[in-house]
């Protein structure tokens, strides 16, 4: 059976791309004939799988699509933009539209209108959590919603001791991640020897450094830059807490990865995906509430251990083998 994943950009550094290549390799290992198609060229291609068992294609012109798409099987379109771009292509395929954001985010963008117009015509519309699938079904009258979480690529054998006085913030240093709010909450909640380590790079770095100075914690906010994915397990093992301060998220891999290492998170309650990993939740934008929850967990090793064990148990449902099982259930459901 063939499975084709299509992305606007399949080889750039990003969450959708990592998830797509992880699923492609996993399904290929289970015997599926898998293709990954990128619809535009990447300036700096990133290789997610060292020895892929699937085929990768760059299709910059629509005329090439029909030569590459198989005559049967499944076409997984990873965003509303891809669904629109591939309208009229792959007519013999079972068509699945993914959305990697949340309903809360979609309703404030063009995404919601595009999903309302196009996703109901597909064989399946796939969202990141049961809550998101229900909201899209309820508010856009989609008859074909399905919940499919992002997978964890690896399951760690070790967990953090939660004793290092370190909070992690992981992600691109861009406005939507609102690391300024995390820095403010950290400043209000903490005292030495606690440190906040920000892993990632981006256009907001200098502004965030200035904000840390303004909050009086410049010496305890450590800008680590980009860390290679292979080195991230050690970062989680050396952390006691994760801070997720984004304005919107779907189901962030960083939250799953931290949970798999037994690291509890304080997060703004911005999506069903975030809620599904059960961190310590705070109302969106409530920096004071965030600081209170962060401070309480800093002060209590026992509470960190309790919550860390709970999120690791929850994260087990996102292991790659279990998510691949769910994809196979979806394929069977569509072909019944």
Automatic annotation (TrEMBL):
This protein's UniProt keywords: Transferase
Residues of the Glycosyl transferase family domain: 163-312
GO molecular function terms noted in the UniProt entry: glycosyltransferase activity
InterPro entries: Glyco_trans_1 (IPR001296)
Pfam families per the UniProt record, alphabetical: Glycos_transf_1 (PF00534)
Record keyword Transferase present: yes
Family matches, as PANTHER family: D-RHAMNOSYLTRANSFERASE WBPZ, GLYCOSYLTRANSFERASE
Record-given protein name: Glycosyltransferase involved in cell wall biosynthesis
Organism lineage: Bacteria, Bacillati, Actinomycetota, Actinomycetes, Streptosporangiales
């Amino acid at each position: 059976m063939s499975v084709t994943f299509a992305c606007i950009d399949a080889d750039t550094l990003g969450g959708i791309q990592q998830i797509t290549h992880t699923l492609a390799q996993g399904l290929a290992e289970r015997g599926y004939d898998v293709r990954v198609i990128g619809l535009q060229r990447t300036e700096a291609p990133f290789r997610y799988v060292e020895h892929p068992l699937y085929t990768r294609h760059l299709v910059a012109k629509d005329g090439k699509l029909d030569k590459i798409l198989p005559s049967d099987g499944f076409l997984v379109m990873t965003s509303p933009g891809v669904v629109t771009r591939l309208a009229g292509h792959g007519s013999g395929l079972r068509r699945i539209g993914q959305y990697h954001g949340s309903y809360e985010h979609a309703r404030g963008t063009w995404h919601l209108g595009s999903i309302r117009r196009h996703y109901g015509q597909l064989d399946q519309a796939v969202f990141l959590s049961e809550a998101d699938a229900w909201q899209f079904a309820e508010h856009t009258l989609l008859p074909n919603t399905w919940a499919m979480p992002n997978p964890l690529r690896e399951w760690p054998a070790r967990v953090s001791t939660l004793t290092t006085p370190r909070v992690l913030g992981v992600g691109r240093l861009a406005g939507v991640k609102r690391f300024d709010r995390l820095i403010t909450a950290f400043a209000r909640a903490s005292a030495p020897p606690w440190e906040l380590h920000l892993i990632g790079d981006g256009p907001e770095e200098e502004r965030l450094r200035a904000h840390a100075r303004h909050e009086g914690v410049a010496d305890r906010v450590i800008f680590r830059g980009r860390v290679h994915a292979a080195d991230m397990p050690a970062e989680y093992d050396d952390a006691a807490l994760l801070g997720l301060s984004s304005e919107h998220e779907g189901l962030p891999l960083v939250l799953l990865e931290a949970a798999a290492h037994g690291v509890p998170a304080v997060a703004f309650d911005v999506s069903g995906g975030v809620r599904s990993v059960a961190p310590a939740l705070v109302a969106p934008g409530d920096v004071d509430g965030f600081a209170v929850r962060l401070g309480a967990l800093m002060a209590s090793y026992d509470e960190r251990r309790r919550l860390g064990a709970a999120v690791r148990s929850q994260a087990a449902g996102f292991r790659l083998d279990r998510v691949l099982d769910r994809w196979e259930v979806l394929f069977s459901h569509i072909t019944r």
